[in-house]
Amino acid sequence: MPQSTSEARRATAAAATPLPSMAATGARNWRDYALLLALAFCWSSTYPLTKLALPTIPPITFISVRSLIAAAFLFAILWMRGIKVPTDAKAWKLFATQQLINSTFPFLIITWSQQYVPASNTVVLASTTPIFAFLITSLITRHEPATLIKLAGAILGLAGTILIVGLDALRGLGSEIVAEIAILLATISFACASIFGLRLSDYDPMVVAAGSVLFGGLVLLPPSLIIDQPWTLSPTPTAIVATIVMSIVSSAFGLMLFYVCLGRLGTLTTNAQGYLRIPIGVGLSVLLLGESVPSNLALGLLLVMAGVAAMTVPARRLKLR
């Protein structure tokens, strides 16, 4: 059909050409930053919701089910909006690649690693994604300006994260070196996904999100059926509700916002929301799980906000090229 052919041509061009240069130097308004904050809220909900679900739903089944529920939700909205999903192999190859490096691979690695690494250590290690995105952008892809102020913002954000989760989190680093290296590999994968995602800018963000989560859910379904045997599980009502909420809020809306932010703000600014997720995640954990408020929350939050502000300032000078 003509539409599929046109979409195939766009996807082929996107895959064959260099990464688009994002308008990182353009003017921004409050809507752009509202989108970034909304994305941080969506993805920060994963911390407490996962903790509520995993005790009675194994990781592989949990990730597969949340992805399939999110896919069903998004495809229903696409159907109501009258938007057709591309059927060409090139588009689905892009969707599959993005899902593997942005969700399936890193989520499985982090879930496995958390069996050996304390949660606070995991937060510190996972918060390095903006730094890896900065390094890859400035040293390899150079698809948008990487400035000194953005580097300072990445370092400030990491420092604030460490303060929020507690300086004692650093003392345990190294005791389970293999698992910790695995988490760092997952964060590098997240950073690469935010750059690769620029190739999908020709597609509607909801289409990209729907295709990605559908692939992610289907690829994990066979191992879920073989290993976890979901029909033998007895998930609690709390776990079921947490899974459904996470599917819609984090997977569906979160991915849509992610691709919108990539198109409007670029790689480095979009990755800055990774720091915002920490204080928001802590707040949700206190509210939903009754966890204690970190003693250095106020100071850490100030550093995080300073870091995010520095990373979201439109780049003009001091390019690291």
Automatic annotation (TrEMBL):
Repeat found in the keyword field: no
Compartmental location: Membrane
The entry's keywords: Membrane, Transmembrane, Transmembrane helix
Principal localisation: membrane
Annotated Gene Ontology cellular component terms: membrane
Annotated EamA domain residues: 34-165, 179-311
Recorded superkingdom: Bacteria
Pfam families associated with the record: EamA
InterPro entries for this protein: AA-Vitamin_Transporters, EamA_dom, EmrE-like
Membrane protein topology class: Multi-pass membrane protein
Transmembrane segments: 33-50, 56-79, 100-117, 123-141, 148-165, 177-200, 207-227, 239-262, 274-290, 296-315
Record SUPFAM superfamilies: Multidrug resistance efflux transporter EmrE
Name of this chain's protein: EamA/RhaT family transporter
Naturally occurring in which organism (per UniProt): Bradyrhizobium amphicarpaeae
Lineage: Bacteria, Pseudomonadati, Pseudomonadota, Alphaproteobacteria, Hyphomicrobiales
